[in-house]
Specification:
The structure holds 2 protein chains of 2 kinds. Chain A has 3 domains: 47-158, DNA ligase, ATP-dependent, N-terminal domain (DNA ligase i, domain 1, Orthogonal Bundle), CATH 1.10.3260.10; 229-424, DNA ligase/mRNA capping enzyme (D-amino Acid Aminotransferase, Chain A, domain 1); 436-585, Nucleic acid-binding proteins (OB fold (Dihydrolipoamide Acetyltransferase, E2P), Beta Barrel), CATH 2.40.50. Chain A contains 20 helices and 21 strands. Residues 583-590 of chain A have low confidence and may be disordered. By secondary structure, chain A is α+β, with helices and mostly antiparallel strands. The relative contact order of chain A is 0.08. Chain B contains 4 helices and 18 strands. In chain B, the strands form 3 sheets. Chain B has a 9-stranded antiparallel beta sheet with strand order 6-2-3-4-18-17-16-10-14. A 5-stranded antiparallel beta sheet of chain B has the order 5-1-7-8-9, covered by helices on one side. A 4-stranded antiparallel beta sheet of chain B has the order 13-12-11-15. The N and C termini of chain B lie far apart (58 Å). The mean pLDDT of chain B is 90. Classes of the chains: A alpha+beta, B alpha+beta.
């Protein structure tokens, strides 16, 4: 098939913005295309050469492409730059300048789809030192045979700027029209797309095997399944109504959602946007190997940066250090993560997406061996608004964004955004500006670099009325190596064998101390907590308060005694003040 | 030693590298027991060189298996330039994938260059039938090209049974150069059908200058609006270089 036919269609597509017309144009093009080339035409029309998850992009810079135009057209770079400022698009520059290229080539031949796709693919895959020369030579050869119009679209594709407005759903409609003459068949085709994340593959299957086979399309390991998405509601009450009275609650972790696909020894990790991010997370591959039972599986989870000493989740920004192509090994060590699984879609040859949530979750629990780095996302079944609120409070304290509420009977609908899953984010965001002075009451043995020292500390505030100490947080960040040695030495003399009676704690520390050392910490806000005991039952029954994202500020307040530390009443005031601030803020915005 | 080729003068190599360097950045020579061949097209597919250098044209030639020797042309040009007029040139390859170049004329020099991986596909030779065949002395051809380049970047070559006309035009003016049959510089003019075609002067001038180092006579063949083929001998002992050039479209 000649590329000129594709280019002619692109030109027509550019002339319209109506979706129906775009769909029809694409459908007509697909009908004209030989079956075995349909995938390539689809990729090219979306400005790609492969599905996104393969991570192969052409991405030549406009400036490099100018050199190719200079070469083929015989115009100077200066003239080309001038034209570039005039048109603002490298494709139009080529179209204009190649109008009168004058020079014929020795083996002029019309460009075919196969050749254009093949050469662009070779350009994309050429890498390494000095590869730009090779990429430009390949492009020169293509341009030598291209008509001005073809050159325009080839160069836009090569620079990643072919923007024809052909969205995924337009392709799906066009495929349904082209192969079944009925847009009503789109859901059947869409299903296959949702399971493979690859429109070319689906088109190819449809072209060669027909709609009947597409209906039997199944999950392919190594291809990303389009994730099921959650709707959003802002009250527990509305959610319970939607779910019919019972709902499964899950922590909504503040990390990156990933899909891990395993085919015996091969692993792929895909992002929510279906990019292949396997190379960023070699540690996840290892954790999957060691902690998941099963030869073949597709599981979903949330990767979260963690403090290896407290096990606490760290904010999303910490995880962003892992977004890199180079220095991955160092990043793996510097920014450890945990993987928190929440769904399983495929296991040992069986597609599990048709099973209800609770069954899938049970299977997940069966195959995951949890430890410090591998968890199953905490969950709980709720039937009352109070249960939802309580679970929400502990999620927030644990560093989560909120909850994802799931219908226990719901199947996994790849690519769908429905009320079977509902996001519930917290109503307010607190903020505190003052640091707190808290008392060290316990400690936990260090891991990794902190081995042999204490890795994290349990902090409490003094309650003058009851004359006891109640826990506020577990802190592990903000300590230098020096700090840790100093702490270890200071704390040895006050170490005691068991939890002192005047310390009220639900957490079991590795080591307990006489409450007397005061340190300065900062946090992001004060939240309700079912774990920490300060101001227990004051705001809500069964809940205390806690400091979210605590960080040591570097100072031991030897100038302060325990009675000078931040008290439970001060914490309560801070909690109320930040809440008031928020509701004031909401008043203004509503 | 898997390959060795020696010539008593550096001229052949100078012609070869000068011709090639104008067209490509890397060169893949094919060596067999029969001799050395090379074929490449410039990246824009406008010009193509085809070299045939049989074993008998070398003073010494050894090659026991088929080999592909790909080098960066720039590397080779630099070394061949070091050769003086009376130097012998010996190129050989060991098992270790490096090319050994020895220049000697009493004073001996030895260079090594690394072979690189070829990125080009095999180049076919265009299948062409020519209506006009011209044999002309090299200095005259070069002079005619230079004359026309004074007014234009392109040369229009017209031939009928009686004469050969080179002409050119540009915004600044026109010019022409004529050779009639019987002129002693025009050794052969064989016209089956009147022919007229336009070519880029740069390409032609460049190859002609290179050819001048090894030969006094050039042959070129062409047809109207079709590619031109220029052929010349590499040395008296043998070896032939063919150069193909695609035409330009006549300006309206």
């Amino acid at each position: 098939m000649l590329y000129s036919e594709v280019a002619a269609t692109y030109e027509a597509m550019e002339a319209t913005t109506k979706r129906l017309e775009l769909t029809q144009l694409l459908a007509d093009l697909i009908v004209k295309t030989p079956n075995e080339l349909v995938d390539k035409v689809i990729y090219l029309t979306q400005g790609k050469i492969h599905p996104d998850f393969m991570g192969i992009e052409i991405g030549l810079a406009d400036r490099s492409v100018m050199r190719a135009i200079a070469f083929t057209s015989g115009h100077s770079l200066k003239e080309i730059e001038k034209k570039y400022y005039h048109f603002g698009d490298i494709g139009s520059v080529a179209e204009d300048l190649l109008q009168n290229k004058g020079q014929i080539t020795l083996f002029s031949e019309q460009l075919t789809i196969e050749r254009v796709h093949d050469v662009l693919d070779r350009i994309a895959k050429a890498s390494g030192l000095g590869s730009l020369g090779l990429r430009l030579r390949l492009l020169n050869r293509l341009l030598a045979d291209a008509s001005p119009k073809e050159a325009k679209y080839i160069l836009r594709t090569a620079t990643g700027k072919l923007r024809l407005g052909i969205a995924d759903y337009t392709v799906l409609d066009a495929l349904a029209l082209a192969f079944t003459n009925d847009k009503g068949n789109r859901p059947k085709i869409e299903r296959a797309y949702n399971l493979s994340g690859d429109l070319g593959l689906v088109a190819n299957n449809l072209a060669l095997n027909g709609l009947k086979k597409i209906e039997k399309f199944h999950i392919k390991l190594g291809h990303p399944i389009r994730p099921m998405l959650a709707e959003r509601l802002d009250s527990g009450k509305a959610i319970l109504e939607k779910m019919g009275g019972t709902a499964a609650l899950e922590y909504k972790l503040d990390g990156e959602r990933v899909q891990i696909s395993c085919d015996s020894h091969k692993f792929w990790i895909f992002s929510r946007r279906l990019e292949n991010i396997t190379s960023q997370y070699p540690d996840l591959v290892e954790l999957s190997k060691s902690n998941l039972k099963g030869k073949e599986y597709v599981v979903e989870g949330e990767v979260v940066a963690i403090d290896i000493n407290t096990g606490a989740y760290l904010p999303f920004q910490e995880l962003m250090h892992r977004r890199r192509k180079h220095g991955v090994e160092k990043a793996v060590n510097d920014y450890p993560v945990s993987i928190n699984f929440f769904d399983i879609l495929f296991l040992n040859g069986k597609d599990l997406t048709g099973l209800p949530y609770q069954k899938r979750r049970n299977i997940l629990v069966d195959i995951v061996k949890d430890d410090a780095r591998v968890n199953i996302v905490p969950s709980k079944v709720a039937t009352t608004v109070e249960e939802i609120e309580e679970f929400m409070a502990s999620a927030i304290t644990d560093g989560c964004e909120g909850l994802v509420v799931k219908d226990q009977k719901s199947v996994y609908r790849a690519g769908a955004r429905e009320f079977a899953w509902i996001k519930l984010k917290r109503e307010y965001n607190g903020e505190i500006t003052d640091s707190l002075d808290l008392i060290v009451v316990g400690a936990f043995h260090g891991r990794g670099r902190r081995k042999g020292k204490y890795g994290a500390f349990l902090l409490a505030s003094y309650d003058p009325v009851n004359n006891d100490f109640r826990t506020v947080c577990k802190v592990g960040t903000g300590f230098s190596d020096e700090n840790l040695i100093k702490f270890f030495n200071i704390l040895i003399p006050i170490k005691i064998p068991n939890k002192p009676n005047n310390v009220v704690s639900k957490i079991d520390a590795d080591v307990w101390f006489n409450p007397q050392v005061v340190i300065e910490v900062m946090g992001s806000e004060i939240t309700l907590s079912s774990v920490h005991t300060v101001a227990m039952d004051t705001v809500r029954k069964g809940n205390g308060l806690a400091l979210r994202f605590p960080k040591f500020m570097g100072r031991i307040r030897s100038d302060k005694g325990v009675s000078d530390s931040t008290s439970n009443t001060e914490l309560l005031k801070m909690y109320k003040r930040q809440k008031k601030l928020i509701s004031k803020h909401s008043d203004n915005t509503h | 030693m898997v390959f060795l080729a020696k010539t008593s003068s550096p001229n052949e190599w100078k012609v070869v590298v000068n011709t090639i360097s104008a067209l490509v950045e890397e060169a893949s020579f094919e060596a067999t027991s029969e001799g050395l061949t090379f074929r490449a097209m410039d990246p824009s597919h406008v010009a193509l060189v085809d070299l045939d250098w049989p074993n008998l044209a070398f003073d010494k030639y050894d090659c026991d298996k088929q080999l592909k020797l790909t080098v960066r042309v720039e590397d080779l040009v630099k070394l061949i330039r070091r050769a003086d007029g009376k130097d012998s040139v010996e190129i050989s390859m060991n098992e270790d994938e490096t090319l050994l170049l020895k220049l000697a004329n009493g004073y001996k020099r030895q260079f090594q260059i690394h072979l690189i991986e070829s990125t080009y596909d095999a180049t076919p030779v265009p299948k062409l039938a020519f209506n006009t065949k011209v044999e002309i002395t090299e200095p005259t051809f070069e002079k005619m090209l230079n004359d026309i380049s004074a007014v234009s970047d392109h040369i229009i070559i017209s031939a009928d049974e009686k004469k050969l006309i080179f002409s050119g035009k540009s915004d600044s003016g026109t010019g022409s150069a004529t050779l009639e049959k019987g002129n002693q510089e025009l050794l052969q003019l064989n016209v089956k059908e009147e022919s007229k075609a336009t070519y880029s002067i740069d390409y032609l001038l460049n190859i002609t200058k290179a050819a001048g180092k090894s030969t006094d006579v050039l042959t070129f063949e062409y047809s109207s609006k079709m590619p031109l083929r220029l052929t010349f001998k590499l040395s008296e002992k043998g070896g032939r270089m063919c150069f193909y050039l695609a035409p330009r479209i006549e300006e309206k």
